[in-house]
Amino acid sequence: MLRVSVSSLDKYAAYLQEEEYPLALLLADLRGLTPKTPAMERGHAFAKAMESAAGPCEDLMIAEGHAFAFTCNAEIEAWPRRELKAKKDYGGIIVSARCDRLHGNVIADDKTTSHFDADGCEKYTSKKAWRYYLDIFGAQEFVWHIWETREIDPDGTPGVSHAWEVFAHHVIRNYRYPELEAECRDFALEYKQFAEQNVP
User: Fold this and answer.
1) Where are the domains of the chain?
2) How far apart are CA 130 and CA 100, in angstroms?
3) Tell me, what's the pLDDT at 188?
4) For the segment 155-171, what is each residue's pLDDT rounded down to a tens digit?
5) What's the CA gap between 78 and 76, in Å, rounded?
6) Residue 180, burial from CB neighbour count under 10 angstroms (0-12, 13-18, 19+)
7) If DSSP codes are grouped into helix, strand and coil, which group holds residue 181?
8) Cα–Cα dist 161/154, whole Å
9) Sign of the dihedral through C-alpha 38, 163, 145, 63
10) Which fold has domain 2-198?
11) Rounded to two decimals, what is the model's pTM?
């Protein structure tokens, strides 16, 4: 039985859409051979810091050697279910997902970026990930929390190698639609055929 993560399906989708994403790089990414970029390390540390956060974003949060100082006016929902894992069999291929936060029929996901373009929301809404999250978790609404950051001086904070000002917060909402489950199944099966031929 083939198993794949939602993030791998997103990488495959990017390969199909972007001419500058060659097959060799996709295969390296799928096999976990590509080193983490600084942006990926920042995002992973931020996700860790957010696991126990709730309420107004006023304090300094630290995780994995990264400090995040919030200067934007935002609040983190005090949802009880965080970092929840689930999977679904789409017909010989099991897709696994891990959401940042889940409350009822709503999933929330946090992303960090150095620049947010309000006209470029398609960067997020075009992804396969939110569709699979909604289908796998049986949810109705997916909320992107986009946190704009810029690097600042760690200023000697113990255990901190990188510090970031979180200066803006943006929200994007996506919703379940009738064809969503069928589209997820079809794309998973397309990936299954590709993986059987290209990914040992």
Assistant:
1) 2-198
2) 12
3) 98
4) 877 889 999 999 999 99
5) 6
6) middle
7) helix
8) 7
9) positive
10) Lambda Exonuclease; Chain A (3.90.320)
11) 0.89
